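Write out this protein's structure.
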Amino acid sequence: MVNIVAYGLDVVFYIGLYSILTLSLNLEYGFTGLSNFGVVAFFMVGAYTWAVTTMAGTPAILAFIASMLAAGVIGFLVSLPALRLRGDYLALATFVFAEIMRLIIMNIKALGGAVGMPFVPQIFPMQEISREAYVVANTILVYSVLLTFMLLTYTLLHSPFGRTILALREDEEAAQALGKNSTRYKYQIFFLGSVMCGAAGALYAQYLGFTGVDLFTLTVTFSVWIMCIIGGSDSLLGAVVGAAIVELLSRSLRVAKDYFMVPIDPNNLMLILTGVLMVLFILYKPTGIIPAIRVKLRHSGVLVEKGGRRLIHSSVKKDE
């Protein structure tokens, strides 16, 4: 019999986990305008780094930092050639990279190949505590990490750096005319977004006690994009709202199949429903459920707001 309490807490855990992934995409796409379709690759790097380092005896805190740094460094290296592209070409390049990364790991025997890596060390050993206590502890951990990243992002966006990336999103050529090095800012944002994905990957691997390439298919990337669009691509709370809506819809369909005769496989039905939702939001509410963030530019009453098209002017200071 399914433990209802543990199942409910498990849902809450995954909402927090996907909120971290969605927040990373919000930072890259919503606030900077970078179409990263390789989210799952950095998520996977974080998970495998956690597995390898902890199985080698590395303390949990160091393994967690290593997972973030590994994902961040790979994200930075990928961004060097990828960010020379724009729009659809950048999306395609990151999309292909994610699949290449998955195939490479699948063919490395030391990483378990297609079978994966079982018995991954966990921060809270499940054998020593109850299932409910285990899920509660991990839920507190994942929301602590999420809150930390949200505070970091909020602080970043309300700094000169944040105002610059918002200006780059709205009109990159105008920002460059004022002396802003757009490429440098994009590299930094890609690195930070990848770090967040690496953290989520480490939390995911230690929670399951297992990691394998089958967990990191391109469906994960599509799900995160749907969460981002539904919740609001340039809203911190939108990341959590979007993740909650999609995850609750997914779990509801899985439960419904046990009580109702559904002619379509729940997983396929989930893809159909979320696809329809995404199209509807793009057409009728492109800003998502949560309104866009509004940040004042330095020494200026002008607002940088997606959709408002009120852009930067000469009061934005040039880089020295």
